[in-house]
């Protein structure tokens, strides 16, 4: 929040970048997502101030069930990638008491088991490999 928005050694890096861990990639992904959410700030405009919704619900009312809350809650809430467990302790214990590293390892295994997908069109990849003399699959 003080202006530092470049995090070095993030995304899986350990031991001064001598080691990489798939679990750490997953944990860092969630942390970086939280930071991005915080840095995006809070929108302050008539829609987000919701004065009409406040008047409608009134003192002691239930804002969770209001139409205004439902229309905004999905985009305002950061759900993360599954590393953070937000269950109450009893439920967490009944489900095996997995810590963040264990959950991250399972998420990483799931991701690694998926078929690889290139997000760069094949013709662009070929052009890059040709220009920079990169050997390998296109």
Structure description:
The protein is an all-alpha fold and 138 residues long. The protein has a domain at 13-43 and 78-131. Helix content is 50%, strand content 3%. The protein contains seven helices and two strands; from the N terminus they run E-E-H-H-H-H-H-H-H. The chain has helices at 22-39, 46-49, 51-57, 67-76, 89-94, 100-113, 122-131, and strands at 13-14, 19-20. Strands 1-2 form a two-stranded antiparallel ribbon. It is extended, with a radius of gyration of 22 Å.
List keywords for this structure.
mainly alpha; extended; two-stranded antiparallel sheet; 138 residues; 50% helix
Residue stretches low in confidence (pLDDT < 50, at least 5 long) are none
Q: DSSP helix count?
A: 7
The shape, in one word, is: extended
Beta-strand fraction estimate: under 5%
Would you tell me the structural class of the helices and strands?
mainly alpha
Alpha-carbon distance between the termini? 41 Å
What strand line-up does the widest sheet have? 1-2
Give the overall average pLDDT.
86
Q: How many DSSP-defined strands?
A: 2
* Helix/strand order: EEHHHHHHH
């Amino acid at each position: 929040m003080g202006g530092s928005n470049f995090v070095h050694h993030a995304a899986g890096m350990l031991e001064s970048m001598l080691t990489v861990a798939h679990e750490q990639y997953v944990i860092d992904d969630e942390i970086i997502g939280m930071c991005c959410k915080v840095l995006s700030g809070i929108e302050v405009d008539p829609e987000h101030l919701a004065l009409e919704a406040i008047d409608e619900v009134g003192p002691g009312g239930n804002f969770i069930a209001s139409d205004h809350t439902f229309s905004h809650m999905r985009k305002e809430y950061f759900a993360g990638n599954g590393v953070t467990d937000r269950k109450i302790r009893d439920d967490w214990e009944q489900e095996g008491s997995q810590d963040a590293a264990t959950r991250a390892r399972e998420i990483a295994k799931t991701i690694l088991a998926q078929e690889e997908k290139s997000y760069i069109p094949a013709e662009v990849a070929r052009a890059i490999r040709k220009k920079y003399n990169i050997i390998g699959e296109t």
